[in-house]
Amino acid sequence: MQEAQEELALHFDQLLSELRQGHLNEFRELFLSLHIYDQAQFYQSLEEQERERLYTYLSPKELADMFDVIEEDNEHMKDYLDEMRPNYAADMLSEMYSDNAVDLLNTLDKSQVSKYLSLMDVEDASEIKELLHYEDDTAGSIMTTEFVSIVANQTVRSAMYVLKNEADVAETIYYVYVVDTDNRLVGVISLRDLIVNDDDTLIADVMSERVIAVHVGDDQEDVAKTIRDYDFLAVPVTDYDDHLLGIVTVDDIIDVIDDEAASDYSGLAGVNVEEVSENPLKAASKRLPWLITLLFLGMSTASLISHYEELVSEASILAVFISLITGTAGNAGTQSLAVAVRRIAMSDDKDTSFVSLIVSEVLTGLITGAVTGLTIFLIVGIWKHNFTLGFVIGMAMLCAITVANLAGSLIPMLMDKLGFDPAVASGPFITTLSDLTSVLIYFNIASLFLQYFM
Amino acid sequence: MQEAQEELALHFDQLLSELRQGHLNEFRELFLSLHIYDQAQFYQSLEEQERERLYTYLSPKELADMFDVIEEDNEHMKDYLDEMRPNYAADMLSEMYSDNAVDLLNTLDKSQVSKYLSLMDVEDASEIKELLHYEDDTAGSIMTTEFVSIVANQTVRSAMYVLKNEADVAETIYYVYVVDTDNRLVGVISLRDLIVNDDDTLIADVMSERVIAVHVGDDQEDVAKTIRDYDFLAVPVTDYDDHLLGIVTVDDIIDVIDDEAASDYSGLAGVNVEEVSENPLKAASKRLPWLITLLFLGMSTASLISHYEELVSEASILAVFISLITGTAGNAGTQSLAVAVRRIAMSDDKDTSFVSLIVSEVLTGLITGAVTGLTIFLIVGIWKHNFTLGFVIGMAMLCAITVANLAGSLIPMLMDKLGFDPAVASGPFITTLSDLTSVLIYFNIASLFLQYFM
């Protein structure tokens, strides 16, 4: 890897000097010999003036191949398009795979989108317009329309002929989808199967009629699950009437899995880890809304304790264990939350597991609470020579942990039921909420037993 | 999807009745018409006696195809192998893709592994033995040896001939790797390129000589990054001398990405979310080690506060804000941790970003701390009509958040430097640690200003 990277760096240097010196042919040969991902890395390292020259050196199709691999969340995407001549940009967008073109257009203003669409040829523009209508995070929003489809009553030979012709524009040629005259999906055959069968075999005889397809409105996570479970390279997307609308390829699914993982992780931490900025001012501005919101939630805990200030001044020993109880309950609640969010994401049938998950989490809370409570009972009893105080702390721990587990599982479940992403019920939110309930439980139990441990 | 699932359920019912009634042919026809993932779902729904009959109905090769898609972390894997005749099991293991066979063998006892290896034919066994030697989580440990390789001085026609012959055993036929006489990797050509080129074209003329490969010792996360960045369906694995050893396919990479995401998520929550058990006793036993460890860490915070008990009894108002300060600092530390873990995972060059990340996190902490501190200064000042107290709380907040951000970024960075997975520095650990520093900061500042706010 090290060696390859150094070789690539040398290549980039040479490319840059060819570009600066205006050596069109040398530049093109060297540039096009690179893998498109490396082309994209080189392109993104250029200055605006250099990029402008590059546009005159490459055809819209050549640039489109490279743009297909640039992530659409690249913050400079808009600038790149702006610095191209509008016609060139529109041609490039037409040449891109439709799913990537749509992703890119989705980052632009509406007026820009219609400008580019009006400059494209009518067919490309209408294809893209249709894709732009699908809701975010559905199969429709990530599918591409560049797939290969044939009818069943032809031979392997003629299917291979179709493939050869479409190899240049199709996003994958490794599956060929079989449709009836009404464009309804009736079968699928992989290129592997085409290759091992005789040229004169009828497609109808060798295709698989048991096609696994996803619905255009399915959530992208479900599409990811299908591709992952079946080890597919692509999955067809259909409407309610089984018409073939497009395909989702495995590379897009990897992005989906990455995004979902990052968003779950962000949820648990209460910070968007994908928008990582080196600039502390920007980073702080992203994190402050959550922190300040939680600060106000934390204020209710503070005002609750304030309500018990007299109790604390009478028994200042109680203050010693506030952070231990809130902290431990918060830790237990976070565990519960993570398990619940994960199980909601993994579960196929969400309804049956609702009650069983809650019950299981509360029971888990009772057991962990009992063990933790007993431990702290012994520690406090021995340390402070006061087993009644130990009992108060232990009981509070048991109840606080059980309630934290209930909140940690119930809140994401409810959010899921209400149609929100359960991962939004972040870890910090659960711990801050559990601070409140823990303190309430703690001081109530302490008040009950005050006369016995003081 | 709904409809398809119902159809599949009907299918399973019919399959089960054919199996129970001993209709060999009907069962085989129906079973083999299913996609292997669905075959595996059916197989896993059977009772032991039914599975034992199924082994007599299917060839080791047919069973192997199905076992290739069962995740190796399935807890019943060992039982499945045990209930087969050892020879049948060994034959099945030989027929599986080598990477999957190795994953499966890795879950067994050493004595069992050598039993099966001794029953396999020598060539298969030696291939698997070699793969078993690679360290966990490296490219070597997830690669398969069933790839298609050719030499450069042949035509597209003869390459296609090789492909047809190997299509049945190769894990992917969509890339053909080109090697020299010494088995050094010199090029690659995709099936797409083979198809669009004339049969008489020389491979040497159309192959890509710029092969992106990974080293056998590379971390599986780096392999995942390469496949994801380049949108590959597979990547070749080589040794230091560029000898082609195997390939890693995209379906294995999806599993890697899933596992890494789950382990990061688990780390942040302080619980292994992958070992989800419905049994509360088991779940509690998994979570308690962390909770009890953190409880003891929390005890140091308690004993620290205990040290300041006199201060608290003098100024019980101080107790009101303990959980607010520890909670908010904990939230900020968790944000910092998540960003650091993510950035370590994403960064290509880990050394340069070390200092800049720490500096950036501390500065972010100072800014968020200043804003949060100012907010709480105003709230407390107005609420308690005591701006000196507000100043103490605000200052403590500022310092506690800054220290929490430092800990949240420094600890995962240090773990990464020391060769540990930075995600092990879990969220609960950071928050519990930050409780300690926050309390220390809070009471020290409070002691300094005690005479002014009381």
From TrEMBL, chains A, B:
Superkingdom, taxonomy of origin: Bacteria
Keyword annotations: CBS domain, Cell membrane, Magnesium, Membrane, Metal-binding, Transmembrane, Transmembrane helix, Transport
Compartments, record wording: Cell membrane; Membrane
GO terms, molecular function: magnesium ion transmembrane transporter activity; metal ion binding
Sequence intervals crossing the membrane: 288-305, 317-341, 362-383, 389-411, 423-445
Main location: membrane
Domain CBS residue range list: 143-206, 207-263
GO CC terms: plasma membrane
InterPro entries: CBS_dom (IPR000644), CBS_dom_sf (IPR046342), Mg_transptr_MgtE_intracell_dom (IPR006668), MgtE_N_sf (IPR038076), MgtE_transporter (IPR006669), SLC41_membr_dom (IPR006667), SLC41_membr_dom_sf (IPR036739)
Coiled coil segments of this chain: none
Family according to the record: Belongs to the SLC41A transporter family.
Assembly with partners or alone: Homodimer.
Functional description taken from the UniProt entry: Acts as a magnesium transporter.
Protein name: Magnesium transporter MgtE
Native species: Enterococcus canis
